[in-house]
Write a structure and sequence with these properties.
The complex is a heterotrimer of chains A (about 260), B (about 220) and C (about 280). In chain A, about 35% of the residues lie in helices and about 25% in strands. By secondary structure, chain A is of the alpha/beta class. The relative contact order of chain A is 0.19. Classes of the chains: A alpha/beta (about 260), B mainly alpha (about 220), C mainly alpha (about 280). Chains in contact: A-B, A-C.
């Protein structure tokens, strides 16, 4: 029923018949969803509130496991294995699939310690290596200039846009393969938003990116593929250039032209 | 706007510039061909402009995508709209150059005596080429181009072009009266020459669109 | 008189009355403090800190035994009570969350906080003093610990819950195991608040008298053996103040003064910390 484009290039992730029900609910939030995610591209998930896009995003790094009694079935294939199995090493998975949240979440420690956090977790102890990798991550997140003289200062002294960049630096320092962005700019002003968008576009050379956004224009500006979700189903997945010019599903067209949501 | 947007715009501009250059070069070649009565050169003109329709479509589709994805405003919006309409004018101009080359090629082999008309025709053709050159130069300068200046120059060229065409029209009508049996051929020649005149009109439109893109206000192509 | 005028007058009356009440309340506090200061400072001298208790009439009587005893009782109580309280609070906030068990524990904790401390003293008497046949410092510390526990538990629980869940999620999303999320991220975020809870808890038990009466009893001389009855500032103060001897009474005032200053400082510091934290 859904129109899903054929992704001929390599896939970073593949969702197969994924169904998800929140604890205490009878209705599944996501209904038997199948979807490929292309590698080294940016895939945007759009749709009205409650369509399941954030739920889907948080399934990729098993965030739902933090809260008991959620139920799910189906498969999510990553690196030739299903990551939804009980014996999946969640710690390892989350170093390969990172996440950036809506509200900037700088840890209550110095800027340096924030970025080095993931590295230290992995056992990196060598001071020089830490310094090099922290610097590289901060440069890649376009915040090195602002941070280099304040590395030992508390991260909470940074502005919202800067903190979000810090979170991005922290996530890319561990060199993940996939980065999940959960409405990364909805708490930021337009200038910071533009900066973050540019940063995200620049990252796709190295990581595959999935971004959930309620801002259609952002999806149009930034992504290579756009998936439109509605009531827990994937209605359409197309190259962004096509979806916004000639959407294949009527529902997609109505959403994009603002008829609902 | 994002660098993604800049990339898109630059790509569109480059395509339009290339198209414009191809057509201008072809038009100059056509002028040479007519001067030297060289059929081979005329053939070359036609060949070089074989795919301009497709190129125009490609540019249009890129512009539509840019509208859909980036929703530009103000100057960016005006330039994009100008590019969309300009492409149309440019492709039509190119088609005109192509047809002119094809028709004129036939008349050369006719041993049709248009020698006395030749100087005026060359002047007419030259002014059309000049107008195109002004446009091309201005387009490639982008922000640094003085759009007012260009518009004025093209307008001057166009008025000269109109005068030359009127002269030719009169001449040919006289000849039709004298050589009634060749009247159909003369009418056809006049039709071809009109393409040169139309080309100059289109150059004015293009200059006008660029001025609109820069200054804003409302589009006024039909003054 | 218009309605508005009536309202304005009523407003002014109520404001005057409430201000008056506040002033009366503050007035009593200032009165208490001033009496304490006047009598306490008068009795202060170096001998208090250097000399042990002496029979009445002896010039060289001091409070050293009571001060040391108090420090030991409160110290041991804190050494066990603080970690226990923090860990319990951590369990509630990070593991138990809103489960039935956790809510029950929270309710019980609240009830315990308002339990009369003398009852707790009696309880410890029954389970420690009676079976062992004697009063001891351990019994006193245990009683204080029981009083301290719910306070620290509750503040830790509340402060940890104030740490936004997205912060935890961000730590998990980097592949952090749960115990590290708690110790490296959540604790750091709630550092000030937990410290405040600890300070308030210690301040509370430092001023307890009744439970000590049944447990550590008292000693007029220096004793550092926790398995024996132990002197405490509070009980000593009670004894000296109610005695008929003037020099003992003076020492009682000194003890009251020292104790009050200690608790006041701890409370003020604690609340300042809390203000700074909540203001962020």
């Amino acid at each position: 029923m859904a129109t899903i484009v054929d992704i001929t290039e390599e896939q970073a992730l593949k969702v197969k018949n994924f169904e998800f029900t929140y604890a205490g609910s009878d209705e599944p939030n996501i209904k038997k969803l199948t979807m490929p995610i292309a590698k080294h591209s940016i895939t945007a998930l759009i749709g009205p509130s409650g369509c399941g896009k954030t739920t889907l995003l948080r399934s990729f790094n098993r965030m739902h496991d933090l809260y008991p009694a959620n139920r799910y079935s189906g498969e999510i294939i990553f690196k030739d294995r299903n990551i939804l199995t009980k014996n999946e090493d969640l710690i390892k998975l989350r170093t390969q699939i990172g996440m950036i949240f809506q509200k900037p979440t700088a840890f209550p420690m110095s800027i340096f310690d924030n970025v080095a956090y993931g590295l230290r977790l992995q056992g990196v102890k060598n001071k020089t290596e830490l310094q090099d990798r922290v610097e590289k991550a901060l440069q890649d997140a376009a915040i090195w200039q602002e941070a280099k003289d304040r590395l030992k200062h508390d991260a909470n002294g940074l502005s919202g846009g800067q903190q979000q960049r810090l979170c991005i630096a922290r996530a890319i320092a561990v060199e993940p393969e996939v980065l999940l962005f959960d409405e990364p700019t909805s708490a930021l002003d337009p200038i910071s938003t533009a900066g973050i968008e540019e940063l995200i576009v620049g990252l796709k050379e190295r990581v595959s990116i999935i971004i959930v956004t309620h801002n259609m224009q952002q999806a149009a500006r930034v992504s290579d593929y756009t998936g439109f979700m509605y009531l827990g189903e994937l209605v359409e997945l197309s190259p962004t250039e096509e979806l916004f010019v000639t959407p294949k599903e009527r529902l997609t067209e109505e959403y994009i032209t603002g008829k609902f949501g | 706007m994002l660098s993604k947007y800049d990339e898109k715009i630059n790509s569109i501009r480059e395509k339009i510039s290339n198209l414009l250059r191809d057509i201008t070069t072809a038009d100059e070649l056509s002028l040479e061909a007519f001067k030297l009565s060289d059929k081979v050169k005329f053939k070359e003109v036609e060949r070089s402009l074989a795919k301009i329709g497709l190129k125009g479509d490609d540019i249009d589709n890129e512009i539509i995508k840019t509208f859909a994805l980036f929703g530009p405003e103000a100057k960016e919006l005006r330039f994009l709209v100008a590019y969309l309409k300009m492409t149309n004018e440019i492709v039509r101009t190119g088609e005109g150059v192509k047809k002119y080359a094809r028709k004129m090629s036939e008349y050369i082999s006719h041993e049709f005596n248009i020698e006395p008309l030749k100087p005026t025709i060359l002047l007419l053709h030259k002014s059309s080429v000049n107008a195109l050159k002004y446009i091309l130069e201005c387009f490639n300068e982008y922000e640094n181009c003085n759009y007012e200046d260009t518009y004025t120059k093209v307008l001057v060229e166009e008025s000269m072009n109109d005068d030359l065409f009127s002269i030719l029209e009169k001449e040919i009508l006289n000849r039709i009266i004298d050589e009634k049996e060749l009247s159909i051929d003369y009418v056809k020649i006049l039709g071809s020459l009109r393409k040169l005149e139309r080309s100059c009109d289109r150059s004015v439109n293009i200059a006008n669109l660029m001025l609109y893109a820069e200054q804003g206000g409302e589009i006024k192509l039909f003054n | 008189m218009t309605y508005t005028q009536k309202r304005v007058i009523a407003n002014s009356i109520v404001m005057a009355l409430s201000t008056l009440s506040a002033l009366i309340g503050i007035g009593f506090l200032l009165w208490i403090l001033s009496i304490l200061i006047i009598n306490g400072v008068d009795a202060l001298s170096m001998t208090i800190f250097l000399e042990e208790g002496a029979p009445p009439g002896n010039e060289s009587g001091g409070l050293k035994h009571a001060l040391i005893g108090q420090l030991m009782l409160v110290g041991y109580a804190s050494a066990f009570g603080v970690p226990l309280g923090i860990m319990a609070g951590t369990y509630l906030s990070e593991y138990g969350l809103k489960s039935k068990l956790s809510e029950t524990i929270r309710d019980i904790s609240d009830i315990m906080m308002s339990a009369p401390s003398i009852v707790i003293g009696a309880f410890v008497y029954a389970i420690v003093v009676a079976p062992s046949g004697q009063f001891s410092g351990w019994a006193g510390s245990i009683a204080l610990m029981i009083i301290m526990l719910p306070i620290i538990l509750r503040t830790t629980d509340d402060m940890l819950q104030l740490v936004p869940s997205t912060l935890r999620e961000a730590a998990f999303a980097l592949g952090t195991p749960k115990y590290k999320v708690i110790t490296q991220v959540v604790y750091r975020g709630a550092k000030a608040g937990i410290l405040t809870g600890v300070m308030l808890g210690v301040a509370r038990v430092a001023g307890e008298t009744a439970p000590l009466l049944f447990t550590s009893f008292n000693d007029n001389f220096l004793n550092t053996d926790m398995s024996q009855p132990m002197a405490s500032l509070t009980v000593t103060m009670y004894n000296y103040a109610t005695s008929p001897y003037e020099d003992w009474q003076k020492l009682g005032w000194a003890a009251a003064f020292i104790l009050s200053m200690f608790i006041l400082t701890l409370n003020i510091l604690g609340r300042l910390f809390l203000l700074k934290r909540k203001g962020k």
